[in-house]
Specification:
two-stranded antiparallel ribbon; mainly alpha; 6 helices; about 130 residues; rod-shaped; 2 strands
């Protein structure tokens, strides 16, 4: 691979390496693969430390598909009824129902309480656009 590399020097020191485009493309691909591996390793470490969780594909599709409110998807994934979630947050069951239906938005304070009850971040409760 190094036989096709041209080294450009400045003041007697190597400063640039000029390589054929196919080598450049392979290097970029390898660098991207390495970044992907590092991101995966970080994510798995977060899971191992209990800082994140692996969500089944079916649940992820529901959460990010935009067809239902994320509050409903997380609530059902956690095995809670609207009544359970209402009790955990100090809200009424009808308020949870209206939130899931998109008729209410919820204050910042309530969304924080809701996120804690569902064990997710507040960002996880924002409906996709």
């Amino acid at each position: 691979m190094t036989e096709n590399v041209q080294i450009i020097e400045r003041d007697g020191q190597p400063e640039y390496a000029v390589v054929p485009i196919e080598i450049y493309r392979r290097l970029v691909e390898c660098a991207e693969d390495a970044e992907d591996i590092q991101a995966f390793d970080r994510a798995m470490a977060e899971v191992a430390r209990g800082e994140d969780e692996v969500v089944p594909e079916e649940v992820a599709r529901r959460l990010f598909g935009g067809e239902e409110h994320p509050v409903r998807g997380w609530r059902e994934y956690r095995g809670l009824t609207q009544k359970d979630l209402a009790q955990a947050t100090g809200a009424g069951k009808s308020y949870i129902s209206q939130l899931e239906a998109g008729r209410k938005t919820g204050s910042l304070r309530f969304m924080r309480t809701l996120a804690e009850a569902l064990e997710v971040s507040m960002e996880d409760l924002i409906p996709p656009e």
